[in-house]
Write a structure and sequence with these properties.
Strand content: 5-15%
Mean pLDDT: 86
Order of helices and strands: HEHEHEHEHHHHHEHEHHHHHEEHHEEEEE
CATH superfamily of the largest domain: HUPs
Low-confidence stretches: none
CATH architecture of the largest domain: 3-Layer(aba) Sandwich
Shape: globular
Largest sheet: 6 strands, mixed
Number of domains: 3
């Protein structure tokens, strides 16, 4: 006889599973399912569907993937669904025009790369991997017609992506209308309790809930996760914007990029890219706010944790030690002059460089930043809109060019 599975207390699970989530649809349903799971010893079936449309993943892709890991951590069944069939259709979410479908060869190659990367987060032996070609590739014309009969065209066209295109007289292909219905059939076949997705996927996820009900199943719970803001602190993380951290990048490169984010953005990264529980993040934040912990030290802990996730603990510690050595070599504390500024609103770095005499003009300061010649606490600045947080006392080492150092003291 199989022993009844034990789970952590429901309140503990809810806090951990909803950490960093943008929305839970619906919270009371999640609680009810977790309570039922605790009574029966039967784990929930939580899944994430990913279309392998590109070969490489960056940290932005891992936000939802990490949430799937959290369900795995709590003892539930984590299902990683590879949309090898749906990828050939193409998700219309966020698309302003019909994009060409991928070939089977492209999809298969990308899917193989995805699996190699996701096992850096998910436990290989505990992950149920499925491919939606298992059922979508075998659907008959009659089954597709019956599936389509469960959803109204008017509701589909209310979708923002389609509505915008209609207003602009841009084409919408019929196969794009099928995408949310076919992926909803995934939820039917998997008999899922929970589905995860990004906030921009909400329309699709709501369709999935409705189609499950149409097929006589209990509608799954939905957890949506925020879009991760990139290194520039302005736009979502994307290779096209150059503000990304690839999960296969060398540890040193990952660490350096993470140290370049703003102090404020750091807390979002703690929530979305680490397993530190909410009370742990709150404690760190309070220590920084009280001046007991320097923001750079908190950021170094963050970078170490993230690098360790993808390259192992030893690599994370080594990257941190190397960054610290480089920082100390460049810091030259005895030689760096001090420049004191009062606490207050954030200061634009470009203006500060000019004001402190480290650049003769705003245009020269911007040129230095664009050429990678400006660093804050040893981290290269990539965005000319970079601001310095002046809300709490502390010191920041500023470098402009190869030999100009300035210790900015906020008091």
């Amino acid at each position: 006889m199989t022993a009844k599975r034990e789970f952590p207390p429901v309140e503990e699970q809810i806090a951990y599973l909803t950490k960093g989530a943008a929305e839970t649809i619906r919270p009371e349903e999640l609680r009810e399912r977790l309570e039922q799971s605790a009574k029966t010893g039967k784990p929930l079936r939580a899944y994430l569907g990913v279309d392998p449309t590109a070969p490489d993943l960056h940290l932005g892709h891992t936000v939802v993937l990490r949430k799937l890991k959290h369900f795995q951590d709590m003892g539930h069944t984590a299902i990683f669904l590879i949309g090898d069939f749906s990828a050939m259709i193409g998700d219309p979410t966020g698309q302003s025009e019909t994009r060409p479908p991928l070939t089977r060869e492209q999809v298969d190659a990308n899917a193989k790369t995805y699996l190699e990367q996701v096992y850096k987060i998910l436990a290989r032996e505990k992950t149920e991997v499925r491919y939606n070609s298992e059922w979508l590739g075998k659907m008959t014309a009659e089954q597709i017609v019956r599936l389509c009969s469960h959803y109204r065209l008017a509701r589909m066209l209310e979708r923002e992506d389609f509505h915008t295109r209609l207003e602009k007289n841009l084409p919408i292909s019929v196969h794009e209308l099928l995408y949310p219905l076919l992926t909803a059939y995934d939820a039917v076949k998997l008999e899922s309790d929970v589905e995860l997705g990004a906030t921009e996927q909400k329309f699709n996820l709501l369709v999935h809930r409705e189609i499950q009900r149409e097929y006589g199943l209990r509608a799954q719970v939905i957890l949506t996760m925020p879009i991760l803001v990139g290194l520039d602190g302005q736009r979502k993380m994307s290779k096209s914007y150059g503000n990304y951290v690839g999960i296969s990048e060398p540890p040193r490169d990952m660490f350096g990029k993470l140290m370049s984010i703003s102090d404020e953005l750091m807390w979002s990264y703690w929530d979305l890219l680490t397993d530190l529980p909410p009370d742990g993040v709150a404690k760190l934040r309070n220590e920084v706010a009280a001046g007991r912990l320097h923001p750079m030290d908190a950021k170094m802990r963050l970078a170490t944790a993230i690098v360790s996730t993808f390259h192992g603990h030893a690599a994370g510690e080594e990257a941190a030690a190397e960054f610290q050595r480089v920082f100390r070599e460049r810091q030259t504390p005895e030689e760096a002059p001090e420049w004191r500024i009062p606490r207050g609103e954030p200061r634009r770095l470009v203006a500060l460089l000019v004001e402190a005499g480290m650049a003769p003009s705003r245009s020269e300061a911007e040129r230095l930043i664009k050429q990678g010649g400006v660093e804050l606490d040893g981290a290269r600045v990539a965005d000319i809109r970079q601001e310095i947080d002046c809300s709490h006392p502390g010191a920041i080492l500023l470098r402009a060019g190869k030999k100009k150092f300035l210790r900015v003291v906020i008091e």
